[in-house]
Amino acid sequence: MSNSHKALWAQCLQLIQANVTEQQFKTWFAPIVFESYSEAEHTLLVQVPSSYVYEFLEQYYVGLLSKVLGRVFGANVTLRYRIVTVGGDNGRRPVVQVVDGEQPSALEAPAPASRVNKSPSVLDAAVPQGLNPQLDPKKTFQNFIEGDSNKLPRTVGLTIGEHPGKSAFNPFFVFGPSGCGKTHLINAIGVRAKETYPQKRVLYVSARLFQVQFTDSVRQNTTNDFINFYQSIDVLIVDDIQEWVSSPKTLDTFFHIFDHLFRLGKQIILASDRPPVDLQGVKDRLLTRFACGLIAELEKPNEQLCIDILTAKCRRDGLKIPAEVIQFIAQTANGSVRDLEGVVNSLMAYSIVYNSSVDMRLAERVIKRAVKVDNHPLTIDDILEKVCHHYNVSQQHVFSKSRKRELVQVRQVSMYLAQKYTKMPASRIGQLIGNRDHSTVIHSCNAIEQRLKTDRAFSSEITSIENSFRLKK
Q1: Cα 376–378–382 angle (5° rounding)?
Q2: The sheet that has 78-87: what strands, in order across it?
Q3: What's the CA gap between 201 and 307, in Å, rounded?
Q4: E strand spans, 244-387
Q5: What is the C-alpha separation between 232 and 19, in angstroms, rounded?
Q6: Of 202, 264, 200, which Cα lies nearest the Cα of 60?
Q7: Is the pTM of this model over 0.85?
Q8: Across 164-217, where does the E strand assignment appear?
Q9: Which residues are bridge partners to 54 per DSSP?
């Protein structure tokens, strides 16, 4: 009878092995030794090598053990542990302690198998659960353009994606301002890891979703299942963890998950809008763990990187945008990758709807509406609007061939201010202001500069127009 009970325990181990990672099984379940089973008392006695193993099993795997035992041995089975440690005479005599595990009746009921990625039960079925990694297949290293501002994080991220958990970069903590590419980078790591190791359990989750799942598990009394689920992940990617700073219970729970994964050599990747030292409200025990791997800053892309990103996007999507328009967008998007993509998408939409070509004038109009930044660079439209308002003339008159003195002055002032407040070449300024050539622009700017030196009233007019821009001279 004992042999048949031992065979049943072997079945239990098979079910457990199918629902945990290989490392988890080797660490926590392989060392368990079957001793006996009492049919009269419905009690299974097993031996574990230390009180630490017993406490860990009871804290994190009690739900799994209960469901497995209930399936194989029947309902209402009590698990009893014999803990054998070294002690006594100079540490040579073993010390034996027998304790009962948590009763099955105190455990939560099994949850339905349809709870995908939402605190699922680890044994809704006796097979490994399918896992949607929640990765965006479009955010890869192929389209994460390298530049001076992201070279280190990108290089390290690529290494992690190809060798998750096997480098010194664990955890990998990425921080930087909004729009600098953090989500793209950590997503690309997950995609590469899944491509390289299809069998690994890779999961991307936002901090907010993690918190919602945890709150639901507390409400439904399934916290053990929630923890077990996340402790089964091989590559855990959490975005925007700064959202946890005012959620101590979520942080405490994540600490246990983090500690477990880290101890087993699983890869942890975290992203935040600030470095660990600025995460106010996070306990030191978690901050020190964040800092024990690699902390990498993603800076806003500089102008050249913005140009490279836009050029790559145009090539990838088959878009035709003039080089000067790409440069203008790169100069005005405030170093935000999201703004860059938004402006390009808006340009193409306007171009299609209004059947117009993508040029500087269209780019200026789109930038004004799409990029919301403080003191964004002035556009030709901004300048023309203010100058025409000051002199009480219409833009149509300014663009005309008229040589009336007052209109010539408005054109010249507009060209002067455009050269001063934009980075456009004279040829482009001339095209946008009445389709004049570059020599006209140069002559106009020289004329205005000479007049400013001798005409105080005129100088005051120009100052008034500049003040209307709300920009410093």
Answers
A1: 125
A2: 33-38, 43-48, 78-87, 93-100
A3: 36
A4: 267-272, 294-297
A5: 8
A6: 264
A7: no
A8: 172-175, 202-206
A9: none
Sign for the CA dihedral angle at 104, 105, 106, 112 comes to positive
Instruction: Evaluate if residue 135 carries a pLDDT over 80.
Output: yes
| Contacts of range 450-456, beta carbons closer than 8 Å, 24 or more positions apart | none
The owner of tokens 């994460």 is 144
Find the range with the poorest average confidence among 68-77, 105-114, 149-158, 219-228: 105-114
Name the residue with tokens 């050539």: 437
- Coil, strand or helix at 467: helix
Say yes or no to pLDDT of 189 above 90: yes
3-state secondary structure the chain: CHHHHHHHHHHHHHHHHHHCCHHHHHHHHCCCEEEEEECCCCEEEEEECCHHHHHHHHHHCHHHHHHHHHHHCCCCCEEEEEEEEEECHHHCEEEEEEEECCCHHHCCCCCCCCCCCCCCCCCCCCCCCCCCCCCCCCCCCCCCCCCCCCHHHHHHHHHHHHCCCCCCCCCEEEECCCCCCHHHHHHHHHHHHHHHCCCCCEEEEEHHHHHHHHHHHHHCCCHHHHHHHHHCCCEEEEECHHHHCCCHHHHHHHHHHHHHHHHCCCEEEEEECCCHHHCCCCCHHHHHHHCCCEEEECCCCCHHHHHHHHHHHHHHHCCCCCHHHHHHHHHHCCCCHHHHHHHHHHHHHHHHHCCCCCCHHHHHHHHHHHCCCCCCCCCHHHHHHHHHHHHCCCHHHHHCCCCCHHHHHHHHHHHHHHHHHCCCCHHHHHHHCCCCCHHHHHHHHHHHHHHHHHCHHHHHHHHHHHHHCCCCC
Tokens of 250: 């979520």
**Is pLDDT above 90 for 105?**
no
Residue 246: which pLDDT band, with cuts at 50, 70 and 90?
Answer: confident
- What does the pLDDT look like over 378-403, one tens digit per residue? 788 888 888 998 898 888 888 888 88
7 membership: H or E segment, kind and range = helix 2-19
At 38 the three-state DSSP class reads: strand
* Residue count of the chain: 473
Q: Is residue 252 scored above 80 in pLDDT?
A: yes
